[in-house]
């Protein structure tokens, strides 16, 4: 059995470290430690409600990073020195490291490099592409396992079995269908006929009285709960809900969002 980590687990596996260390550590250094992008760590910290501490913001490196008034001659000397350094190091040094060296952002380093006509070496680009593989969520073995499970379940799986597969893999049904289409995995003819038969059977029972009952139940329950409660096809229920422009009410949406936030903690 492959050591398969669901996407939700992977997304939140560094939450505690970010909570504990973000306030007093440079974001770029923390991003390197957790093997995530700088901006990913920043967004995650914001969602977790953590920010830089006052002591950190008053630290010497932060003060030194503030722009200082310089003369035209000093700026020209800096430009000459920066150009020389870039020409020597740009080809085999990451832009993030260069940005930290100069005290500027990555976009500025790229702009300077374009002005000088500099490029990375092929060897550096190969190493970078190999390293980026570490940042992928799924390893090749995990991707193979995921594809194998979809190939096993998707062709003949019922709606409930596909829901269970989504929970196992940590992805939604739409993404399962997208992966299946990409790899040429289709629903079996028998399953398609069964779904069509169920769909037509379920459409026959959408009487005006039933529609009124569902309309009262729909705003405070999930689509799956509605389909189960009224014993109707989920796809047909969604069509009827769309046709009648039914919406979930604020109380239901609040419960769903609160549950999602609690799951992340």
Structural overview:
- This protein has about 260 residues and is an all-alpha fold.
- The protein has four domains: about 5-60, no CATH class; about 70-135; about 140-185; about 190-265, no CATH class.
- It contains 18 helices and no strands.
- It has helices at about 5-10, 15-20, 25-35, 40-50, 55, 60-65, 70-90, 95-100, 105-115, 120-130, 140-155, 160-170, 175-180, 190-205, 210-215, 225-230, 235-245, 250-265.
- α11 runs antiparallel to α12.
- The longest helix has 18 residues, at about 70-90.
- The model is unreliable at about 60-65 (pLDDT under 50).
How many distinct domains? 4
Please outline the major beta sheet. Answer: none
What fraction of the residues are assigned to beta strands by DSSP?
A: under 5%
**What global shape is seen?**
elongated
Arithmetic mean pLDDT: 81
How far apart are the termini? 28 Å
Describe the secondary-structure layout.
Layout: H1 7-12, H2 15-21, H3 27-34, H4 38-48, H5 54-57, H6 60-64, H7 72-89, H8 95-102, H9 106-116, H10 122-132, H11 140-153, H12 159-169, H13 173-182, H14 189-204, H15 208-217, H16 223-230, H17 234-244, H18 250-264
Helix pairs in contact: 3-4, 8-9, 11-12
